[in-house]
Amino acid sequence: MPSFRYPSAGELRAILVAVQLPEMEDADVRRSLSELENLLGSLGIGVADRIVQRRIQPSRVTYVGEGKLQELARLTGGTGELPRGPKTNLESLRTDLLVVADDELTPGQRRNLRAALGVEVIDRTEVILRVFESRPQSHASRLELELARLEYELPRIRDEHVDDDREGGGGRASRGHSNVELAKQRIRDRIAYLRKEIARVHAVQDRSRRARSDQIRVALVGYTNAGKSSLMRRLTGREVFVEDRLFATLGTTVGQLSPPTVPPILVADTVGFIHRLPHQLVASFRSTLEEAKEASLLLHVVDVSDPAFRAQIRVTEEVLAEIGAGEIPTWLLLNKADRLDANAREAIAREFSEALLVSALDPRDVETIHRRLREHFARNFVEETIILPYARRGLLAEFADRLQIVREEYGESVAVTVRASEQVIAMLRARLTR
Ligand SMILES: Nc1nc2c(ncn2[C@@H]2O[C@H](COP(=O)(O)OP(=O)(O)OP(=O)(O)O)[C@@H](O)[C@H]2O)c(=O)[nH]1
Ligand SMILES: [Mg+2]
Prior knowledge:
Layout: E1 13-20, H1 26-41, E2 46-54, H2 66-76, E3 94-101, H3 107-117, E4 119-123, H4 124-133, H5 139-153, H6 157-164, H7 170-211, E5 216-222, H8 228-236, E6 253-256, E7 265-269, H9 286-294, E8 297-303, H10 309-322, E9 330-335, H11 342-351, E10 356-357, H12 363-379, E11 381-388, H13 394-398, E12 404-410, E13 414-421, H14 422-433
Parallel strand pairs: 1-2, 1-3, 3-4, 5-7, 5-8, 8-9, 9-10
Antiparallel strand pairs: 6-7, 11-13, 12-13
Helix pairs in contact: 4-5, 5-7, 6-7
Bound molecules: guanosine-5'-triphosphate and magnesium ion (MG).
Guanosine-5'-triphosphate binds next to helix 8.
């Protein structure tokens, strides 16, 4: 076990706690805790120690068992005793140390742990919510995130309230109770309002997605921090946000492959995936999931320099399968290859012979992806000659962004040979007969 590093003044450090269920491998737990450590790191919180306990299931009362609880209490300086009443003396909690559970805690588990350990206790969901909240947000993601936050808070509000009500006393109990009810009602009202607003925003997003439905669409998907937005920038020239932290992107951006192709290829940048995403946050991923589901090709971007990249590929594949995007043709882009040495590159190229080993920082690699995309979609084009009356030539202008004109011959009418997808040609013919 790594030795416990005590925080110095002004520093906030965390002790991570996980319960390892029988079906979990050691490596799964290590990976999950490393991810939690990264998430905390992006909030500026360092990790002092990791505590793992093997159990059939988490303790309903204290998450970990009695022995581990005492071990933790020794590390935090807590009494190790459960609260006698529903109250914790918040003033006595240490402010330099935090205990973070790798699962979502029930309100009761959290209260008991706090009392026994004498430190603030939070869970994985809270950490992910805070990371999302620390990111710049679009109008849609702000609403979705507030909804996720309130859904998380609602069942926990009673505890917080009772904890804060330190005066107690018989007469106050009923007043405290009604205050809790009022607070809950306010949250429920706000949740109802947010749901309505979000439905409206989604309807607008759905319309703009439908408007693109006959166009060629590619979606960049993958684990958070893999380099999706970096590739988006270089493939489309769109100034999307790139940063070396988890969940830099919280919304979907669509741009055209640049230099432009005829017909244009639309590329969508999406929100990154993560292991065990809290269910409250699934709505925030909706536009990402829809964008992925409707794409004709997925570019699965992977940070190949991350030692956990194989597991991250699996997480992304699982999510894609869950949302019904498992059958969409997918290219594996093993990104950040510039960080590998020649040997590692060679080994990985052998192991993933179907994948493209690339670096978003290398313009030649970006050009390779661009060319492959062009070739891929051009292959699906068919060439057909369509006879247009002169009066209907305007139709070509309407379809100009979706087809290439190979030849035009003028006689009694115009014979135009075009190259386009079968879908677009069918649409053009349908318009002609109308
Ligand atoms: N060395 C190296 N760094 C890269 C490469 N691609 C991206 N990065 C860096 O990796 C970090 C994350 O890149 P992003 O493009 O923001 O990753 P993302 O997949 O969009 O991440 P999220 O939006 O958080 O899901 C940034 O610091 C990039 O500069 C690459 O090919 N090589
Ligand atoms: Mg991004």
